[in-house]
Specification:
Blueprint: H1 2-8, H2 13-28, H3 31-49, H4 55-67, H5 80-95, H6 105-109, H7 114-131
Helix pairs in contact: 3-4, 3-5, 4-5, 5-7
Length: 138
């Protein structure tokens, strides 16, 4: 019934396909896969706006899909968009030390600042420190 309404609507063919895909995806895919695709979609949009390509783009996608499936470990107060933006800035900063979060409108729109980034970077470092086993020699 709903698909018939979408097909009869005044939307363009691309918009019709998108709406039907969204509705079928909701009923056919597990919730975790839907959430992961949504996070990767947000990351793609932000990286497109920042003109990020190549290995930087792959690093961000790897962090989202393999390392941090639960964003609450990184910062409970931030939204998914903000955390993804912080991941993107972290990768940008690793390639260009002079990058400043205040210089990019995308990060200002997400209401990100240096303090939030420092908290994020600290928790990110703690995560990677806990992941690597420490050998103590006596």
């Amino acid at each position: 019934m709903l698909a018939e309404k979408i097909l009869k609507s005044n939307l363009s063919d691309k918009q019709k396909w998108f709406e039907i895909d969204k509705r079928t995806r909701y009923h056919t895919e597990p919730r975790s896969e839907r959430k992961m695709k949504d996070k990767l979609s947000i990351a793609d949009n932000l990286m497109d706006r920042l003109n990020i390509t190549g290995s930087m783009r792959n690093e961000v996608k790897y962090m989202i899909s393999n390392e941090f499936k639960n964003f609450n470990k990184l910062n409970r107060r931030c939204t998914n968009e903000q955390i993804i933006g912080l991941m993107i800035f972290y990768v940008m900063k690793s390639y260009n030390v002079r990058a400043n979060i205040k210089e990019y409108n995308v990060f200002l729109e997400l209401k990100l600042n240096e303090n939030i980034y420092i908290t994020f970077a600290t928790r990110l470092c703690r995560y990677y420190q806990n992941k690597i086993p420490i050998r103590l020699e006596l």
